[in-house]
Amino acid sequence: MAVETVAIVGAGMAGLTAALAFARHGITCDIFEQAPSLQEVGAGLQLSPNASRVLSKLGVLGDLERLWTEPDEVQLVSGRSLQRRAYVPSGRFARERWGSPYGVLHRATLQDALLHAVNANPLCTLRLGSKIGSAVRDELAEISGRHHDLIVASDGVWSGIRSAIPKNPEAVFSNSVAWRFMVSKSEAPSWLKPNAVNAFLGPSAHIVAYPLKEKDSFNIVAIASGGNTGNRWNTEASAAQKDLLLRHFRGWHPSIAETLAASEKPTFWPLYQVTPGRWHNGRDLVLIGDAAHAMLPFAAQGAAMAIEDAFILANRVAALPSLAQALSAYETERAGRVAKVRARGEFNRFAYHARGPLKLGRNFVLSMRPPQSLAADLDWLYGFDAE
Which UniProt keywords apply (predicted)? Predict the structure, then answer.
């Protein structure tokens, strides 16, 4: 084995998963996180079978299953009429067809499960309050007291370490924004279904809603075009940004419009994506997750791709005779899959936001597709086994 110690910069989902994946192969990991504590951030999260399969191999899926919801179906619904256009069965169907469950949960639930597993693993050391500057390798060694064979940058879409890689990817604003908020189940309107992930489609905008059992609430994400507010996310929407939300969804079904108007303190998220580029320096530095390939949420695969990255990188590093070979194999393998997932997201964006004749054509095609046929289109994505 070419690697004995790994430094992981960033203790988000990608970083914590990577630590567990490397430890699975007997590799010692130091995880460096600049925050003094891991706070509850974000909102809901969808974990498709390709991701839950990895989490099962890492021993954390059981903790999630006790808290999450496995929806009966994922359905596409008209945002104006509330008429269902199509659906894909989930729940038991997902377990049987793709061999692993499809769950929805709060991001903090996944973070807590990963953190618990990392803290319990003697090969993993989490070092909070560790801000890493430009002298990356020296600073990591000074904090931890040892030099690392490999540095894994899992520090997100605005990665500070990415610049050390020639021809690295760049973060760019997508011209889309997301408003996120939760509605308690006790106050939920009838259009929020407790047993489903619902995507409500409309011209140039859409809404995704699903239950969060551990919060006794529904997670709601509304996505449309919007302005850039800089390298910030999860900030409370200003009055002007809340007004922009209502303008984008004017003309939708009255019950949806009323829920958006009544939303309290929605957060405003400019959506960034990362351009293609190199993911490693050929020697000892590699990118995973959003640092490598942040994508728009139209396929609900951002977290899943980060989880797959972490697992496959550790497997390649453990199996191949040299680190250079492992990094090259990882990038080649992952870049192809990420490109395919990104293309699926762009297709969904086109379909979800269709208007005029394109919308009529979309509705006709969906009406002709039975649920089993739509599920088959996802076999390559949800049936993927990162092992």
Answer: FAD, Flavoprotein, Monooxygenase, Oxidoreductase
